[in-house]
Amino acid sequence: MAAQCVTKVALNVSCANLLDKDIGSKSDPLCVLFLNTSGQQWYEVERTERIKNCLNPQFSKTFIIDYYFEVVQKLKFGVYDIDNKTIELSDDDFLGECECTLGQIVSSKKLTRPLVLKNGRPAGKGSITGKNKIFISAEEIKDNRVVLFEMEARKLDNKDLFGKSDPYLEFYKQTSDGNWLMVHRTEVVKNNLNPVWRPFKISLNSLCYGDMDKTIKIHGT
């Protein structure tokens, strides 16, 4: 039997102009990756983190998936507004979805698609092209090395009116087109101007494409 050609790819997801389903605030989106097995059968592969109060989320969670050459792998990205702690999606507001193949993402490196509702209509305000979009980028994983970070900060500015700031860090790498892509977000340290974050690891492939001389950006919020 002939051996299958396979490689691992990393998928990063962001969205723009999501529907606002919350009253008094903005949606709290989360993206779910589904894989098609046969016909209309989809199974959940993984989920991103939930981002509170945001209509233009840039998810730090990376989906790692095997890419089989010459095999059509159908994917679906569903975006939901999560307002509870249950694992079920049926009780969450649906913000839209996008179907494509893994091959389409890999060949384009960055795929942009409008989000649609279950009935196929644009997940927006009547726009035929769909103002609500999802962006999916792909890169092959060629380096399995990881970097261990131990981060802390001192005497941060207090940005809260009541209490102290709730700081966290975001790590970005620069893509070939000059844009910055978020690859990791730390946990939030509540009410602390001298935060010490838990140690965490980022793969070199995610952080700098395996090139130790590449510039990265760290943004504190």
Give me some keywords for this one:
single chain; 221 residues; mainly beta; four-stranded antiparallel beta sheet; 2 helices; 5% helix; globular
Give the overall silhouette: globular
Quote the average pLDDT.
Answer: 88
Widest sheet: strand ordering: 4-1-8-7
> In percent, how much strand structure appears in the residues?
35-45%
Based on helices, strands and strand pairing, what is the structural class? mainly beta
**Helix count, DSSP H or I runs of 4 or more residues:** 2
Q: What is the quaternary state of this protein? A: single chain
Structure at a glance:
Helix content is 5%, strand content 40%. The chain is mostly beta strands and 221 residues long.
Description:
By secondary structure, the protein is mainly beta. Helices cover 5% and strands 40% of the residues. The protein is built from two helices and 13 strands. The strands form four sheets. It has a four-stranded antiparallel beta sheet, with helices on one face. A four-stranded antiparallel beta sheet has the order 3-2-5-6. Strands 11-10-13 form a three-stranded antiparallel beta sheet. Strand 2 and strand 3 form a beta hairpin. The termini are far apart.
Itemize the secondary structure elements and their pairings.
Elements: E1 6-16, E2 29-38, E3 41-47, E4 63-68, E5 74-81, E6 93-101, H1 102-108, E7 110-114, E8 133-140, E9 146-149, E10 169-174, E11 180-185, E12 200-203, H2 204-208, E13 216-220
Antiparallel strand pairs: 1-4, 1-8, 2-3, 2-5, 5-6, 7-8, 9-12, 10-11, 10-13
